[in-house]
Amino acid sequence: MYPVIRLASEMARARNLLSPPAGETHVSRMRVWPWDIDVFMDLNNGRLLTLFDIGRFGLFTRMGILKQLKANGWYGTVAGTCIRYRRRITVFQHLELRTRLAGWDDRFIYFEQAFWRDGECCAHAAIRTAITGGKGIVPPSEMIATLGHNPASPALPDWIEAWSEAETLRPWPPAF
């Protein structure tokens, strides 16, 4: 089941925080509950993606993105994810989820997210999202401008650019 209470709590907390500029980190604090783990007693990799969602919604709330989506009849969708898992995350551990808007190109907005525990990074991801409307993908610069930010993207990290370029080589639909 989707953790609606966690999501609502994160969004309520984020409403009281200042809107960060693009690139500033939003921090969420979470605990791993028994319903978050898999048969190996680790944080389930699917739940990890869901917890990343919650962190992005906290940032979206702070930046006013959700209000702009609603006002313009736009929707957000995840268009790709690249994750690196490095440390085991188990039940009842306290985690810090760091989320930042890394930048955008002509089609996608890129977020960088990481789970930290006791000063050590456990998992790190790049998530690219698309804003869609009645006419297809909304240029990210247009959406960013509605927030009052400079529509020019900060420079994307080299590794995110390389991942994005690699995605253009990937066949769609898959060949099997």
From TrEMBL:
Pfam families on file: 4HBT_2
Highest taxon of the lineage: Bacteria
CDD domains noted in UniProt: 4HBT
SUPFAM superfamilies: Thioesterase/thiol ester dehydrase-isomerase
Protein name: Acyl-CoA thioesterase FadM
Record-linked InterPro entries: HotDog_dom_sf (IPR029069), THEM6_lcsJ_thioesterase (IPR051490)
PANTHER family in UniProt: PROTEIN THEM6, PTHR12475
